[in-house]
Amino acid sequence: MSNFFKDIAPIRYEGTDSDNEFAFRHYDPDEMVMGKRMEDHLRFAVAYWHSFAWEGGDPFGGRSFDRPWFGDGMEAAKLKAEIAFELFAILGQPYFCFHDLDIRPEGASFVESRRNLDEIADIFAARMEQTGTRLLWGTANMFSHRRWMAGAATNPNPDVFAYAAATVKACMDVTHRLRGENYVMWGGREGYETLLNTDLGREAEQAGRFLTKVVEYKYKIGFKGTILIEPKPQEPTKHQYDYDVGTIYGFLKRFGLENEVKLNIEQGHAILAGHSFEHELALAASLGLLGSIDMNRNDYQSGWDTDQFPNNVPEVALAYYEVLKAGGFTTGGTNYDSKLRRQSLDPEDLVLAHVGAMDVCARGLKAAAAMLEDGFLEKARSERYAGWETPQAQAMLDLPLEEIAAQVEAGNLDPQPCSGQQERLENRVNRFL
Ligand code: XUL
Ligand code: CO
């Protein structure tokens, strides 16, 4: 045991009467919600990068955190792994997620980087065996190093495409070995800064061919998890190809991958794309693409991807409503993908940020379940579309335009509007929050 978290004991559920900051007030892993344990609904995962690799920098200043594992080399990476598993134990976290770069030092060559990855994965495997913590997903960081600055799979240089292929293969191998339940692709540099030097069509073709190879490789190694793409409209690049759910659906259809790949949808990215989180979730569910979520939030004034821990219960409730309505997570879960503010220096801050996020998600989940069990939204929705349940309305979907027009004229049709009842529904929703 390191002494990093000093004497913070494992966090327990104590209920809303508790005044203990280091206790859950709403998250009770064993509480049954719609016939399933809360832990099994939420499937929380700590994001290794934000919680252990991020140093607290911003565009105007560097490292603000002081962590004993900061530094290069394998010894630092091993200490980081040890302390990460201490946090998982304190929080009772069922899952974690990582990028290759979060967990291992970059080597002098590709081979050395891969060996470093494999060696840290050995440590993870042992700790996972001891503690029961599982891997929600693994991924490759193909955006930080300067080699990726013009993209990974979409790079104009084929050598970078090759390096990306080798990198993803190594990360999929490790994810498979650690029995990861998903493999995520976030294309942070798959986009462009200026059209003046960019061939959009060629880059999309490269991205499609690359993703096809990833799916083929999944079957070759027998990886049973789900391949997930994470949408984001911009940042770091000015325009990212995986803009939002709708854009990715078009891309997957174009390459015939819509039944092979699902989505990891992040709250903050949905907002950057000009959508609400629940919009992106509902759209993904309607297309059969809902995979997993990154449950952070952005600062609405800043316009940046600020990756803050969730603390807005109404938003979280509407998000979990869509997840529950779609049948809940299968291989997916709730990765926080959230980081501390750079002045939150203390180890306690890291623990309490997660405790708060877990309680907020628990409240959101319970509210969502209660709304679904009450059924008022689904009832209102089905009443609104009731006209479409008639045989005539269904038959119209197969009629040509001119026959429909003839029916309108013959029947002297005069459609009457009716209320959408938005405020009434909002009032009902608020009763549950
Ligand atoms: C970046 C982001 C990533 C992905 C994984 O905005 O969300 O951390 O979740 O690469
Ligand atoms: Co994310």
Summarize the structure in words.
- The protein has two domains: 12-374, TIM Barrel (Alpha-Beta Barrel), CATH 3.20.20.150; 391-431, no CATH class.
- The chain is built from 16 helices and 14 strands.
- It has helices at 38-42, 48-53, 74-91, 100-103, 110-131, 158-177, 200-221, 245-254, 267-272, 277-286, 313-325, 347-374, 376-384, 391-396, 401-411, 422-430; strands at 12-13, 23-24, 32-33, 36-37, 44-47, 95-99, 134-139, 182-185, 191-192, 226-229, 239-240, 261-266, 290-294, 334-335.
- Strand 13, helix 11 (313-325) and strand 14 (334-335) form a beta-alpha-beta unit.
- It is globular and about 80 Å long.
- The two termini are 40 Å apart.
- D-xylulose binds at residues 99, 139, 184, 186, 230, 232, 266, 294, 305, 337.
In brief:
The chain is an alpha/beta fold. It contains 16 helices and 14 strands.
The assigned CATH architecture of the largest domain is Alpha-Beta Barrel
Helix content: 40-55%
CA-CA gap between termini = 40 Å
Q: In DSSP terms, counting alpha (H) and pi (I) runs of 4 or more, how many helices?
A: 16
Q: Give me the strand/helix succession.
A: EEEEHEHHEHHEHEEHEEHEHHEHEHHHHH
Let me know the CATH homologous superfamily of the largest domain.
Divalent-metal-dependent TIM barrel enzymes
Instruction: Outline the low-pLDDT stretches.
Output: none
Adjacency order of strands in the biggest sheet: 5-6-7-8-10-12-13-14
Rg estimate, integer Å: 24 Å
Structure classification:
alpha/beta
- Largest β sheet strand count, sense and barrel closure: 8 strands, parallel, barrel
CATH class call of the largest domain: Alpha Beta
- Catalogue the ligands: D-xylulose, cobalt (II) ion
User: Under CATH, the topology of the largest domain is which?
Assistant: TIM Barrel
Count up the domains: 2
Strand content: 5-15%
Counting DSSP E segments of at least 2 residues, the number of strands comes to: 14
Shape: globular
Q: Overall mean pLDDT score?
A: 98
